[in-house]
Amino acid sequence: MAHGYVTVGWNRQKRLYDAALLSIVASYLAVFAVAEHAVHRDVTIETSLIRAFGTCAFLMLHVILSIGPLARLDPRFLPLLYNRRHFGVTMFLVAAVHGVFSLVQFHALSDMNPFVSVLVSDAGRDGLAAFPFQPLGAAALLILFLMAATSHDFWLANLTAPVWKSLHMLVYAAYALLVAHVALGALQAETSPVLVAVAAVGLAWVVGVHVAAALKGRRADRELRSLTEDGWIDAGRLDAIPEGRAIAATIGGESVAIYRYDGKVSAISGVCRHQNGPLAEGRIVDGCVTCPWHGYQYLPDTGASPAPFTESVPTFDVRLVAGRVLVHPRPHPAGTRVEPAACAPSPSETGGPFYVGYLPQAPAPVARFVRRVVVLIAVVALGLAVVLVVAQAPFAAARFEYGTHRMFHGTVREHPYPFLQTEAEDGGAPRIVPLVAPGKHGAAALTAGFDGRAVSLEGTLIEREGRTMVEVVPGSVRERAGGAPPVLMLEELGETTLSGEIVDSKCFLGVMNPGRLKVHRACAVRCISGGAPPLLYVRDLAGREAYVFLVGADGRPVNRDVLPLVAQPVEVSGMLRALGDRLFLYADPRAIRRTG
């Protein structure tokens, strides 16, 4: 509803609000990306984008949840509340980008529908730490989508205010899901206490401002009891009501706003029909009770909105006795006129400037305050972007030459997984290069029938600290003229027991960085399920790394057998063998033990 009862357009305040909002979001994403690639040069662009958009959306949700209680504590925050739905829709769009990037990166191009994969690929074997975190994020995103899709007043009018309000209160369920999503996901893969502290401070802040606002409103929510024989309620002293303003009372289970204006006192329902806003915190503007949230207006003696608007709220009988305001607890139907109680004229209105969102300009003191708050939010957000980047665990020196194809020559070995035995160069020993297909698939179908043959193939190089892999271009494997060089033989190194983490070789060796731990589990499950060779990643006490391909005791692939144990600490016993510069552990997958 607008001043003068005309449609509210995209006024100057809305443009300034949206410009500031989009500028801060864009600045946060830019600062995060620049800092990420300055501090972590080996991070993949997909990981950087996922983390930038995810942290930005989570931070925005904290601000959104803070606006309501802050506006109850200090009405100078009302300009932020007035346009909060713009903030919420923007936050959903940022979160959706995070979700889409995650869906494509971790679940697409696999042997399973990506939406099904989100629900089933992240499940651990046992324990809270192994609880799947991606379905929690997906559920939160679905709630935020429903809120964004129904943010327009069309839905508010057709769903009715109580239903619409209940739907949008689900934002707290979404927040709880996202806290669990972060705690059971990203924080499981990071070692810095700074990230835990930032998440804990954010949660404490949201809870703290809501508790503070609740304590402030507790007095108004206290049920008033009858003090007269005929059932009237003493709502307080007349001189406690400033001119043009109201006091709040809970009478007969109803929130009531008792207004003093022009030598009169009237009582109407304290709940706005628009979004259940607190009418007792509003003011009389142009002779109408004006809701502080979005400016909806009601005549104080009838509870009805001025024509042509049709909203109305219940009214209550009021009388004055010995300087006290008495209210009858039985409400009249919405829009019923009740004769105001007459009182002596009061001094001018007190309480400072009142913000009305549809007016061309906010009062100067309110505008100055909001500008300072916006600058503070921007500084904190940009500072947090840098802190979150610096606090991340370091990334391994790995790379994936996406979009660059090279020619490779050597002899194909199909078992236990497809490898290319490269020809010796400059007198050096031949190397064993594992092969995979595009997406989350192994290369068995691309190398079928070429076992033991000399070939040329086109592919993209994947490399991590000197260990290479090739993503083969489909259809590029061609037999070469001339005989194949002697095939290397496996060298037995003896029985051993190794402890480490099962990862998918393709992502771990460079396609994604980091390509391990719980945050990558769903992707690793899909890659290994699709045929990528499973690796056992091992580190000794000195921090030295070893990458060992897992093979069944009978020499067959173990992809399906190890899926429940991917990205979890395990202990594997078996025969260790070497093939060129690669290590293989031949073990019975049933004997792989999760170590906790």
Total helix count? 16
Low-pLDDT windows of residues: 1-6
Percent of residues in helical segments?
25-40%
Head-to-tail CA distance between termini: 60 Å
| Largest beta-sheet characterization | 5 strands, antiparallel
Task: Give a short summary of the structure.
The chain is of the alpha+beta class and 596 residues long. Helices cover 37% and strands 23% of the residues.
Notable traits:
disordered N terminus, 5-stranded antiparallel sheet, 3 domains, alpha+beta, 16 helices, 23% strand, 37% helix, 5-stranded mixed barrel, 596 residues, Rieske Iron-sulfur Protein
Describe this structure in words.
By secondary structure, this protein is an alpha+beta fold. The protein has three domains: 12-211 and 361-391; 243-342, Rieske [2Fe-2S] iron-sulphur domain (Rieske Iron-sulfur Protein), CATH 2.102.10; 398-594, no CATH class. The chain contains 16 helices and 25 strands. The strands form five sheets. Strands 2, 3, 4, 8 and 11 form a five-stranded antiparallel beta sheet that branches. Helix 1 (12-39) packs parallel to helix 12 (364-391). The radius of gyration is 33 Å and the shape is elongated. Mean pLDDT is 89; it is low at 1-6.
